[in-house]
Design a protein that fits this description.
The complex is a heterodimer. Chain A is built from four helices and ten strands; from the N terminus they run E-H-E-E-H-E-E-H-E-E-H-E-E-E. In chain A, a hairpin with a 3-residue loop joins strand 6 and strand 7. Chain A is elongated and about 60 Å long. Chain B folds into three domains: 168 residues, Rossmann fold, CATH 3.40.50; 165 residues, Rossmann fold (3-Layer(aba) Sandwich); 180 residues, Rossmann fold, CATH 3.40.50. Chain B has a six-stranded parallel β-sheet with strand order 3-2-4-5-7-6, with helices on both faces. Chain B has a six-stranded parallel β-sheet with strand order 15-14-16-17-19-18, sandwiched between helices. In chain B, strands 10-9-11-12-13 form a five-stranded parallel β-sheet, sandwiched between helices. The chains are: A alpha+beta, B alpha/beta. Bound molecules: thiamine diphosphate (TPP) and magnesium ion.
Chain lengths: 166, 575
């Protein structure tokens, strides 16, 4: 099962290397990892999607890094989760109409149209991206670029925040 | 008027500010600038012959004194040489600060001469590390390094200092308040958990205190004794915990695990409650985890939350400093009624101790047994010595057969098992505790890794004593080949004559002695103890066939503990 965790870390050089080295050293599998600024310039937010059953250890090992300030593990359904992808699909002139119809349903935006391909941008919850990708696989996906996930807790007390020493 | 210092001067001043009395290291290009103010500094510098040695010296010093050990080396090959000692200290939670030179900031990443990515390489081998980017940062960076090394779960911290920063000038200022918003090591345990622990203890019929090095690191020996006596519960002391509680105390069962004694190992197996403090359920203790202490509930006290329920689920987790939590437990238990009667449990354990003692035989006409050397030294010194060990059979025997009575007097490489640890660690321990006898039991294999640090010991007037328990083999590995590879020895036999350890010692400026027969052991030990102006090395020609028992085969169940070679061979399940 995949778990989503948010990690607030001090915005210091090398902090991404510290986190990824820790994951590698402990043998934890990262599905995706994103990092970026937050509302507080001294902090960066990482959103990590991890596989595997060792959640308790992962959270504790993250906390063990001196530059980790806070770790939040999201229970399924308690966070707003977003990904973005660019997907290029084979689109011969006679299939174009059909492909664009399907894209509309999935809120995919055509951002580049070539002679034989269309490139779509899809933003949204992870399953929307997955659905669209599955739909497009029938036509042939020639290139795919996908971001990692970002997530914020919904505006209620749903994220299980793990205090540092518990 | 604000004082202008070079980065190098600020670095040495910052070390002085931390109260550092000794630095172990070796100069070189990138760190050169920092070696100049050392000349005027009251800090003593001990020149190691290899940076791994400098690191283990800092570790031995930290073990013996409880203070932070400091190593300072140059960039590139020096930093990589130091890595083994960092990982070693990390595994054993030894407080250390390492300062490494680095190529100039403008050269970083250019494969400059003696450049290595020290920060990246040391990251997983340290508790924390940093790369200094301006001379102004130095006081705070050094303060932070010492703070991190010596608080919470202790460990090595590395500070990488580029060459140009040592030359830059800065305005001297004392370090400010430490700014580590995410670093708040727990001290006291949660009161609810302390109560829950007391509840379990009250209900337990067969409790065992499972004590690890964390209790020593917290300086909780006295509290441990008070607590153990108060609840009248037997205790096992792991390889890292030897000496935290006196071996002569009737509640101390000694070392459990792969080469632990029968009673300590099986007491855990049959226990209904493991009161774990500062220990981490290492595979050398538990054997096969699935069959380890299956009937026991677990109370786990540790300052590092990540140790709790890492290997074995804890029914009652308590995050906190071992000493502080022991005080809480003492208060809590003290407010409650009498403990259950555990005479039957204690009687069973005494029976086991009588039936399955640690044993060996010294044939007066046969080769020297290592256990005999260890016991003879204990007899002659009355146990009043700090014992340091290498890694291998001799280490296990030293832990088994030396009666430890005091903390900080047993120094060895437990977690990493680093051959070559003993001699440099003994040098560090002797520097830190010059009035103590510091005696290293070293293997002939280990000695050949770091024996050149005897030169440091001689030249710097650090009179350590080294007993080379020479079995002309990489004994521990040979033992595995004998037991698990049908006696097919592969690359584990060393020369019985080369090197000549006594001659080697003499060449290093130490006294070299030898003993070939058991009847020479006592006399040669007396002779070594009488020499105090130089290091002494004694080459003991020991039995090359001897094996360490009891033994639980790696990955096997602790229930399958084999008491002797004959016992092992008679068990088809093991061979
Ligand atoms: C640096 C390092 N290399 C290899 C090993 C594997 N190893 C463990 S014990 C041992 C033999 C040690 O020989 P010696 O020092 O003579 O001790 P003995 O077992 O004979 O007492 C070896 C090779 C190790 N622990 N550390
Ligand atoms: Mg040997």
């Amino acid at each position: 099962m995949k778990h989503v965790i948010a990690v607030l870390v001090e915005n210091k050089p090398g902090v991404l290397a510290r986190v990824s080295t820790m994951f590698a050293r402990r043998g934890f599998n990262i599905h995706s990892l994103t990092v970026g600024p937050t509302e507080d310039p001294s902090l960066s937010r990482m959103t990590v999607v991890v596989d595997g059953p060792e959640m308790e250890q992962i959270v504790k090992q993250l906390y063990k890094l001196v530059h980790t300030v806070k770790v939040m593990e999201f229970e399924p359904g308690t966070a707003i989760e977003r990904e973005i992808m660019l997907v290029r699909v084979n689109a011969s002139p006679k299939l174009r109409g059909e492909i664009l119809d399907a894209a509309r349903v999935c809120e995919a935006k055509a951002v580049d149209v070539g002679v034989t391909t269309i490139t779509f941008e899809v933003t949204g919850p992870p399953d929307r991206l997955a659905d669209f990708l599955q739909l497009m696989s029938a036509y042939g996906v020639t290139s795919l670029a996908k971001s990692g996930r970002i997530a914020l807790a919904r505006d209620q007390k749903t994220a299980k925040s793990q205090t540092k020493s518990a | 008027m604000p004082e202008q210092l070079t980065g190098a001067q600020a670095l040495i001043r910052s070390l002085e500010y931390e109260g550092v009395e000794v630095v172990f290291g070796m100069p070189g290009g990138a760190i050169l600038k920092a070696y100049d103010p050392i000349i005027e500094s009251p800090i003593r510098h001990v020149l190691a012959r290899h940076e791994q040695g400098a690191g283990h010296m800092a570790s031995g010093y930290a073990h013996a004194t409880g203070r932070v050990g400091v190593a300072m080396v140059t960039s590139g090959p020096a930093a990589t040489n130091l890595l083994t000692a960092l990982q070693d200290a990390y595994m054993d939670s030894v407080p250390m600060v390492a300062i490494t030179g680095q190529v100039a900031t403008t050269s970083i990443g250019n494969d400059a001469f003696q450049e290595a990515h020290t920060w990246g390489m040391s990251m997983p081998a340290t508790k924390h590390n940093s790369l200094i980017t301006s001379a102004e940062e130095i006081p705070d960076a050094i303060r932070e390094a010492f703070h991190l090394a010596s608080t919470g779960r202790k460990g090595p911290v590395l500070v990488d200092v580029p060459k140009n920063i040592l030359t830059d000038t800065m305005t001297w200022h004392r370090p400010g308040q430490i700014k580590l918003p995410g670093y708040k090591p727990a001290v006291k345990g949660h009161p609810r958990q302390v109560k829950a622990a007391a509840d379990l203890i009250e209900q337990s019929e067969r409790p065992v205190l499972y004590i690890g090095g964390g209790v020593g690191a917290a300086g909780g020996g006295d509290e441990l004794r008070q607590f153990a006596e108060m609840i009248n519960v037997p205790m096992v002391t792991t390889l890292m915990a030897r000496g935290i509680f006196p071996d002569s105390h009737p509640l101390n069962l000694g070392m459990p695990g792969m080469h632990g004694n029968y009673t300590a190992t099986i007491a855990m197996q049959r226990s209904d409650l493991l009161i774990t403090i500062g220990a981490r359920f290492d595979d050398r203790i538990t054997g096969d985890l699935k069959s380890f202490a299956t009937g026991a509930k677990v109370i786990h006290v540790d300052v590092d939350p990540a140790e709790i329920s890492k290997n074995r689920f804890a029914d009652v987790p308590i995050v906190g400093d071992a000493k502080a939590v022991l005080e809480q437990l003492i208060t809590e238990i003290g407010s409650r009624g009498a403990q259950p009667n555990r005479d039957a449990w204690l009687a069973t354990l005494s029976d086991w101790q009588a039936t399955y003692p640690l044993a060996y035989e010294q044939d007066p006409d046969g080769p020297i047994q290592q256990q005999y050397v260890i016991e003879e030294l204990h007899r002659i010194t009355g146990g009043d010595a700090t014992i340091v060990a290498g890694v291998g059979q001799h280490q296990m025997w030293a832990s088994q057969f030396w009666g430890f009575e005091e903390p900080r007097r047993w120094i060895n490489s437990g977690g990493l098992g680093t051959m070559g640890y003993a001699i440099p660690a003994a040098v560090g321990a002797k520097v830190g505790t010059p009035d103590e006898i510091v005696f290293a039991f070293d293997g002939d294999g280990c000695f050949q890794m770091t024996g050149t640090e005897l030169i440091t010991a001689s030249v710097e007037n650090i009179p350590i004593k080294v007993a080379v328990l020479n079995n002309a083999s990489l004994g521990m590995v040979k033992q595995w080949q004998t037991l698990f590879y049908d006696g097919r020895l592969s690359q584990t036999e060393l020369s019985p004559t080369v090197p000549d350890f006594a001659m080697f010692a003499e060449a290093c400026g130490a006294v070299g002695l030898r003993a070939d027969r058991p009847d020479q052991v006592a006399a040669v030990l007396e002779e070594a103890l009488a020499i105090n102006d130089r290091p002494v090395v004694i080459d003991f020609a020991c039995d090359p066939e001897a094996m360490v028992f009891p033994m639980v085969p790696a990955g096997g169940s602790n229930d399958d503990i084999a008491l002797s070679r004959e016992d092992f061979m008679s068990r088809e399940d093991l061979t």
